[in-house]
Write a structure and sequence with these properties.
This protein is of the alpha/beta class and about 425 residues long. Helix content is about 40%, strand content about 20%. The chain has 4 domains: about 90 residues, GTPase HflX, N-terminal domain (Rossmann fold, 3-Layer(aba) Sandwich), CATH 3.40.50.11060; about 70 residues; about 160 residues, Rossmann fold; about 55 residues, Alpha-Beta Plaits. The strands form 3 sheets. Strands 6-7-5-8-9-10 form a 6-stranded mixed sheet, sandwiched between helices. A 4-stranded parallel sheet has the order 2-1-3-4, with helices on both faces. Strands 12-13-11-14 form a 4-stranded antiparallel sheet. The chain is elongated and about 95 Å long. It starts with 9 loop residues before the first strand and ends with a strand.
């Protein structure tokens, strides 16, 4: 590529309308994604097509328009709101004399910037390598001229390409082996939770729906809250106590987005096992978004990929405080939907009560107990893990009426009065 003036992190965005639903919202997402990747969008090129051009995706006339914007803005990159084939990406870079980034590689780059844990970094690297393995040929187009008319295989360029593929293949194997070790460790932890009858609830939802803010409101965990896309990559788990005094393990997971790359869903499958094994899913949505229904559909699509479409769920419509008061008053909670503001703490008690009602495992029973006063440990357990409805002190005994989870009552069998 030739030398030309560039403007720091300036980027030209490209979005073509092929008649799909949510086109305008997808362009706004592209802008947010570009900014989250550290780019500065300076121009947006739009157009309508029935189908992508096989060579240039956008067609030669539109590519000329993009090229003019690149020169005018001194852009360092062109970002397409679509997935490009290796050949299309190569052809565009040659035509525009500028790096071209498609939506998948943009999201992969953001994940690479956001990953903090060792496992998260390994998962991102795996996704990047699997994506790059289909594009290795881009670096070796000059060989076509060297091989022209010879008709033999095994030249120096092909050897280099094969070497690169073998190196990527070997690294992918190493990464998968390491991730299997992390999975085994989590499996041990999960088995311990099952033995301890720990119930689990997972937050799922579109990116930037406010999951981490809700997580903090429920757990006081202090997890990073950010308007940036994909601010949360590594799952966070904390215990919360429900009104029945049952304890559940709440997990915060990575946000979903339309056209989430399959390589990422695959790479993060181990992390997203918290979703697969959850007792209940809290599907968090931004009640202020004009495309909330479409975003929910995108989340449901990813849940299907995770074989979690049949999980019990509660829809949590977040950011209630951002709606006009008249609109807020018209919203009604139902058996499946609760309206909250995680940022303002509105609706948290209703939400916890509804979670309590929806979890069928470890059911609550009401019983009468007669506990010797000498059984201080049993009495302390009941105070901590049961709702005590009445308490009377008799000679040497305490008579209690309690509502408690079955797991707690199993330890109190000898004190239950039939």
């Amino acid at each position: 590529m030739s030398e030309r003036p560039v403007r720091a992190n300036a980027a030209v965005l490209v979005g073509l309308d092929f008649g799909a639903e949510g086109y305008a919202e997808s362009l706004e997402e592209l802008r947010l994604l570009a900014e989250s990747a550290g780019l500065r969008p300076r121009a947006l090129i739009q157009g309508k097509r029935q189908r992508p051009d096989s060579a240039l995706f956008a067609g030669s006339g539109k590519v000329e328009e993009i090229g003019a914007a690149v020169r005018e803005q001194h852009a360092v990159a062109v970002v397409f709101n679509h997935e490009l084939s290796p050949a299309q990406q190569r052809n565009l870079e040659q035509a525009l004399d500028c790096p071209v980034i498609d939506r998948t590689s943009l999201i992969l780059g953001i994940f690479a910037r956001r990953a903090r844990s060792h496992e998260g970094k390994l998962q991102v690297e795996l996704a990047q390598l699997e994506y790059a393995s289909t594009r290795l040929i881009r670096g070796w187009t000059h060989l076509e001229r060297q091989r022209g008319g010879i008709g033999v295989r095994g030249g120096p360029g092909e050897t280099q390409l094969e070497t690169d593929r073998r190196l990527i293949s070997n690294r992918v194997k190493v990464l998968k082996d390491k991730l299997v070790q992390f999975k085994r460790r989590r499996d041990v932890q999960r088995r311990a939770r099952v033995r301890g009858e720990v119930l689990s609830v997972s937050l799922v939802g579109y990116t930037n729906a406010g999951k981490s803010t809700l997580f903090n409101a429920l757990t006081k965990a202090g997890v990073l809250e950010s308007a940036r896309m994909f601010a949360t990559l590594d799952p966070t788990l904390r215990h919360i106590k429900l009104p029945s005094k049952r304890e559940v393990l709440l997990s915060d997971t990575v946000g979903f987005i339309r056209h989430l790359p399959h390589t990422l869903v695959s790479a993060f499958r181990a992390t997203l096992e918290e979703v697969q094994r959850a007792t209940l899913l809290l599907h968090v949505a931004d009640v202020t978004s004009p495309t909330a229904a479409e975003q929910q559909a995108q989340v449901e699509e990813v849940l299907r990929e995770l074989d979690s479409q049949d999980k019990p769920r509660l829809y949590v419509m977040n950011k209630l405080d951002l709606l006009p008061e008249t609109k807020r008053e018209s919203l009604i909670d139902t058996a499946e939907v609760v309206h909250v503001s995680a940022a303002k703490g509105i609706g948290m008690d209703r939400l916890l009560q509804r979670i309590d009602e929806l979890i069928e495992q470890d059911p609550i029973r009401q019983v009468r107990l007669q506990v010797p006063q000498s059984e201080g440990k049993a009495l302390a357990t009941l105070d901590a893990k049961a709702v005590v409805l009445s308490r009377e002190y008799r000679e040497g005994y305490v008579e209690l009426e309690v509502q408690a989870p079955a797991s707690v009552l199993r330890r109190m069998t000898s004190f239950i009065v039939e």
